[in-house]
Design brief:
Layout (H helix, E strand, L loop, with lengths): L1 H16 L2 H29 L1 E22 L5 E21 L2 H32 L3
Antiparallel strand pairs: 1-2
Helix pairs in contact: 1-2, 2-3
Length: about 130
């Protein structure tokens, strides 16, 4: 699974700056890559026995938002940073319970979809190689 995720990351980088053939192959395999990513997540949930859920937490933090010029009695001028409170959010994760039966069905459905897309994906890759020979 790690190899699939590593190849997904590599293909994503190649699509951004790759040759026309690489960009075409990326487009041809994008749906399968998405399904493989989802399958890896579901399989990880099953292996752990729980899933991870992301949630946003509002926070207030100090930030430098300007400077103030101060002239001392001896004539020296200094710039003093001014701080202000800024509203922001951070993303945290928490464990959530899963239904193993539902996750197994989800994984089976994803595997079936990946298998079903395989022939068309291979045909599209061959067409990319024919259209954009290197």
């Amino acid at each position: 699974m790690r190899l699939a995720l590593a190849s997904l990351a590599a293909l994503t980088l190649l699509a951004a700056c790759g040759t026309p053939q690489e960009q075409c192959i990326y487009r041809a395999t994008r749906e399968t890559q998405n399904l493989e990513r989802l399958l890896a997540e579901v399989e990880g949930n099953l292996a752990r026995g729980y899933a991870w859920e992301s949630y946003e937490v509002p926070i207030t933090r100090w930030e430098v938002c300007g400077t103030r010029t101060i002239t001392r009695p001896n004539g020296t001028v200094i710039q003093k940073p001014e701080r202000c409170l800024v509203e922001d959010t951070i993303t945290r994760q928490r464990q959530i319970a899963i239904d193993p039966g539902a996750e197994e069905r989800k994984a089976a459905g994803l595997r079936a979809k990946i298998r079903a897309l395989g022939p068309q994906m291979r045909a599209n890759i061959a067409a990319c190689k024919a259209t954009y020979p290197e």
